[in-house]
Every structure is written in structure tokens, then in C-alpha cells.
Amino acid sequence: METVISFIIIFGALVFFHEFGHFLFAKRAGILVREFAIGMGPKILGITKGETLYTLRLLPIGGYVRMAGEDMDTIHLQAGHRIGVLLNKEGQAKKIIMNQKHVYPEILFLEVEEADLEKELWIKGYDEDEKLIRIEVARDAVVEENGRETILAPYDRQFDSKSVGKRFMTIFAGPLFNFILAFLIFTAIGMMQGVPTFEPVITEVTEASPAAEAGMQNGDLVTEIEGKQIGTWDELVESVQTNAGNPLAFSVERDGELLDFTITPEISDQSAEEIGVIGVLYESPVEKDFFGSFAYGAEQTIFWFKEIFRLLGMLVTGQFTIDALSGPVGIYKTTEEVAKYGFFTLMSWAGMLSINLGIMNLLPLPALDGGRLMFFILEAVRGKPVDRQKEGMVHFVGIMLLMLLMIVVTWNDIQKYFF
What we know:
Number of helices: 9
Distance between the termini: 22 Å
Structural class: alpha+beta
Helix content: 40-55%
Largest sheet: 5 strands, mixed, barrel
């Protein structure tokens, strides 16, 4: 049950921040956001606030922000349509009823002659006296069809009406917020757990090792090797590993006293390469540092960003196969293992997953955010947009291929973990 709760919280946070990025920048650009959804499939819970419907959906495999002007969102009134119109105090249409199922007082019936519900916002039609009249439509008018109400979206509030830059940032904001979330997670770890100092402090000296024979003890702080100042554990490791069989002069600090040792690294039998070891273990000390926590958050975010790109490069060059990829099932099982190591390890896992989600979405593949960004870049270069039908077809094919990949990866996970 703890694993289920952990998975739901982590996955929900990743999806929420990703979609919140799209949502926030869409709002800043003046785009009407019709729905903010966490999850896919049937709706479990829905709350309307302002002009946006906030929903929680059944399948925890993603989320979306539905913006006006996308996915056949535009409302059209054709000649011959019979509609009902409710007017506001200014004589503008505040509600347009496509199929009347409710009785409204003071409703005006029209047979539509022509209409513009995007730019100039008007309806022209014949009333019950067969008189041709023209009615202005309010910018915040509502269209009701079969009991379902939809807020009218003037063209200047639709996604496609915005500049390339605003559309680019609205889509890019999703992955961007995943990177921001990762930074906040790693920063929080630094604040709560402390920031690793990476000081070259010996945590444990193993028995019968070169270090033990020379007299080194737990808690010794290595300050110099062969007269070279040592400031981090990585510098100590590099000096030892590159000097297998060579005597090294160590200067250490113990209880405020400086001591000197001569230690000869022996060749490790745990590595295929000829590297030196002296038989000491390390666990990085931590310190509470408010401002250092932000630096630690940035360092960890950059580290995992580079690491995930390195793994992607290995996939592209064939250094590991598609069988190494994991879908929701694999992520769930890994979360189960990671949770055993404690809260902070689970937080680190969530930060890494957030970066991974951001990078995956930025890949220039159809249907992903990166694929849409490529079309925006192409539009900026050409000076005109790509035909929407052609772009839609490319994204449709991309969705089908991604669904196929998801099925393959999920099946591999099921085979790996349950059979």
C-alpha cells in the first residue's frame, strides 16, 4: 500500500507540474483553457472554476491541458440551423441553445442565415415573424448543445491566434516545469537532509588494508597527498587509483593534530582495470546550509540531465536495446524498491523521474511536445505555418507509434517482473 501511495503521489506531482506549465503560460498568453486534466480516460471528478474545468481521470498514464482552438474545438453555425438565443442587458447573445431541452423565458428563436462566432461575433437569421435580424454575440457567451455548455472562444483567445513565440513557450513550459520541479525536490533534500560536503573524511578503514597497516583511523581528514592539497573525496580517489603500487605520502588531520603516513595502494581485484585502492570507505558528511541547498539542487539537476542524455545516446547507438526501457509497470516496481531505502532516496528518485519526463517530452518526435516545437521552429523559418491537416496527420501517426511502443515496453515489464 505504501508503494501504491508513493507511486500515485510521485506520478501525480510530475504530471501536475508538467501540465501546470502549459496551463500557466497559456493563461499568460490569453488563451482560453477549457480543461486541466490529471490522468486519462473516464472522468472521476470534475470541478469548474471560472472558464476552466479541472478534472481527475481514471487512468494514471498522463494528463492534458485542452486549449481553445485545438482538436476541432471551434463552434460553427450553419445556414438553416434553428437555435434559441438568450440576450443580456446590452442586447447581445449571452447564451446560444443548439438543441433546446430546457424551457427558457424570453428566449428568441432564429433560423440561422449566416454567423461569425470567431472574429466579429454576430449572428444573422430569421425570427418567428420571418424578419431578418442581426444580433451581436457577447465575448463570454455560452453555447449549449444537448445540455452541455461550452464557453465561446473568440479567435484572439484561441491557441493558433497567438504568435509563434507565445505558442512555443506554452508548449515548452511543460518540460520546463518538470526541470523546475526536479530542482525544487533536490533543493528540499538539501534543506532537510543537509548538503553533502564531499570532504575527504575517512568513514571506515577496512581490516588488513594498506591504510589500516599504516595507522589510518576512522574520522581522519586527508589534507595532502604527495604535497598536493586534497579538498574533495574525488581528488583523493583519483590520486590513489592512478598510483597502484607506488608509495604515497599522506597528510591527515586527527583531533586537530597533523599526522603523516606513507601508504602504498594495492591493485584492486574488483576491477578489470589496474587501479589502486588503500582500503577505506566513504560516506559524505552533510551540513545544513540554506543557500548551499539551492546550489546542491542545481548541481543534482544538471547531473541527472547529463546522465539521462548519456543513456539516450547509448540507446541511439545501440549500446542497449529497447528491452532496457521501462513503462509505468517498470517505474512502479522500481519505486517499490527505491521506497525501501527511505524518504530522501524516494525524493531523489522523483527528481530524476521529473527530469526524465521533461527530456522525453522534448524529443523531436510527433505527438510529443518536442515534435510540436519542431513545427513552430519550421513555421518561424518559413514565415508561414505548416498545413494543419498535414501536421495533424503527422501527430496522429506519432501517437499510434508511441502507443505501440508503450504496449511493447509494458509487455516487457510484465514479463520481466511477473514471469
